[in-house]
Design goal:
This protein is an alpha/beta fold. It folds into two domains: 4-127, Enolase-like, N-terminal domain (Enolase-like, domain 1); 144-414, Enolase-like C-terminal domain (TIM Barrel, Alpha-Beta Barrel), CATH 3.20.20.120. 38% of the residues lie in helices and 16% in strands. The protein has helices at residues 65-79, 87-98, 108-125, 130-135, 175-195, 215-228, 265-278, 293-303, 319-328, 338-341, 344-356, 374-382, 395-411, and strands spanning 4-13, 19-27, 32-36, 144-151, 164-168, 238-242, 249-250, 253-254, 281-285, 308-311, 333-336, 360-364, 386-388. An eight-stranded mixed barrel has the order 4-5-6-9-10-11-12-13, surrounded by five helices. α5 crosses α6 (215-228). The longest helix is centred in the middle third of the chain and has 21 residues, at 175-195. The termini are far apart. Bound molecules: 2-phosphoglyceric acid (2PG) and magnesium ion (MG). Residues 242, 244, 285-286, 312, 335 line the site of magnesium ion (MG).
Length: 430
């Protein structure tokens, strides 16, 4: 059995031009695993700690040299000789080495980079694709993509306070066709924006960031683009939203646009309700803020039988918060991000807890990404059935889609692609 020979890391750049960490793990049989860590902008309050140098002379304080050093000086010596197939034991060792509650000592970026690189090295040593290494030979379900075609909030500089307007090609017969539906809608949307004299520059996740202020305008544009692409809004391509409401929550209430007075959770939920009745929306993530557990419970009671209600910032991929969400019926699904919690094993535990409760999961990128496609394999390994990985342009987003194309092709007739939304795509398509 191969063992870990060395581990090291490198400070690289992410898709926003900020430093991030790339880890490398080498085994004594010559196998190597390399993985890069993403970084969020609209982060949850209780996410695992992303360690930054804070040295204002470099990268505005955002350098990760200390995390890189932690890999070389603390993690590498401890892992030497370890079994790379014992992912849970390695991750437990990483957590113990860090020793803090939120991974602030060594940094969740240092821990996660190594954790993912170990998985890759073990996959290489066993000559298996990453998804089969992590999920076993039965991993064959391709995820339904949620593609973010209009960006607002913390991901763009326009006036739109709602963060993500995504298309979900759930009527497609397979992943490759789903990708085509998405790309053709994206191009139709660009034509439409151009004709209206709106900007076609893109935001952090590759979606357009036109100067529109209202969510309904964005929804109308998307429905029109789906039709212009020759597809049926609702039946072929539905809509998913991530308002990322923590971003416009204040002491006085939610302020969904610059000129609006603060409103309550229930009023905001009523607004979503009217959109759900009008547009083919199948999924709503972070419709309320991360501290609003009570509001979320009523939100899910009211909307949860119509659409998937996804919790992101409120759970931060942490089983402690997910367990509470399950007990209190806070949502009926969870967003899953490896770097919110900081190791592969803890992320797997979060996914399993959700699935055991009958919840759906959506494996997600961060707004700051790299060309690493780990989450594509991870989504297939977990049989999650959904992935959120941005728009239909920009290399760091497309890397994940292209990897899923490879996996679908490799699985051939064994590939499974089904809609998680067959029972709730009820919107009329306006
Ligand atoms: C989100 C994510 C990813 P960020 O809110 O779901 O789209 O954004 O990575 O900025 O937290
Ligand atoms: Mg989110």
């Amino acid at each position: 059995m191969p063992t870990i020979m060395s581990a090291d890391a490198l400070e690289i750049l992410d898709s926003r031009g900020n430093p991030t960490l790339r880890a490398r793990v080498m085994l004594d049989d010559g196998s190597t695993g390399i993985a890069s860590v993403p970084s969020g902008a609209s982060t949850g309050e209780y996410e695992a700690h992303e360690r930054r140098d804070g040295d204002a002379r470099r990268y505005r304080g955002r350098g990760v040299r200390e995390a890189v050093r932690a890999v070389a000086e603390v993690i590498a010596p401890a892992l030497r000789g370890a079994d790379p197939f014992a992912q849970a034991a390695i991750d437990a060792q990483l957590i113990a080495l860090d020793g803090s509650a939120n991974k602030m000592r060594l940094g969740a970026n240092a821990l996660l980079g190594v954790s993912m690189a170990v998985a890759r090295a073990a996959a290489a040593a066993s000559r298996r694709p990453l998804y089969a290494h992590l999920g076993g030979a039965a991993s064959c379900r391709l995820p339904m993509p949620m593609m973010n075609v209009i960006n607002g909030g913390a991901h763009a500089d326009n006036a739109l306070r709602f963060q993500e307007f995504m298309i979900v090609p759930h009527g497609a017969p397979g992943f490759a066709e789903a990708l085509r539906y998405g790309a053709e809608t994206f191009h139709a949307l660009r034509d439409l924006l151009r004709r209206r004299g709106l900007a076609t520059g893109v935001g952090d996740e590759g979606g357009f960031a036109p100067e529109i202020a209202g969510a309904e305008e964005a929804l109308d544009l998307i429905v029109e683009a789906i039709g212009a692409a020759g597809l049926r809004a609702g039946a072929d391509v539905a809509i998913a939203l991530d308002p990322a409401a923590s971003g416009f929550a204040s002491e006085a209430g939610y302020v969904p646009s610059a000129d609006a007075a603060p409103i309550t959770s229930d009023a905001l939920t009523a607004m979503y309700r009217s959109w759900i009745d009008t547009y083919p929306i199948v999924s709503l993530e972070d419709g309320l803020g991360e501290r609003d557990w009570e509001g979320f419970r009523r939100h899910t009671a009211l909307l949860g039988d119509k659409v998937q209600i996804v919790g992101d910032d409120i759970y931060v991929t942490n089983t402690r918060f997910i367990a509470r969400g399950i007990a209190e019926r806070t949502t009926n699904a969870a967003l899953i991000k490896l770097n919110q919690i900081g190791t592969v094993t803890e992320t797997v535990a979060a996914v399993r807890m959700c699935h055991e409760a009958g919840w759906h999961t959506v494996i997600s990128h961060r707004s700051g990404e790299t060309e690493d496609s780990f989450i594509a394999d991870f989504a297939v390994a977990m049989g999650s059935g959904q992935i959120k990985t941005g728009s239909l342009c920009r290399g760091e987003r497309i890397a994940k889609y292209n990897r899923l194309l490879e996996i679908e092709n490799e699985l051939g007739a064994d590939a499974v692609f089904t809609s998680p939304f067959t029972s709730c795509a009820s919107g009329s398509g306006a």
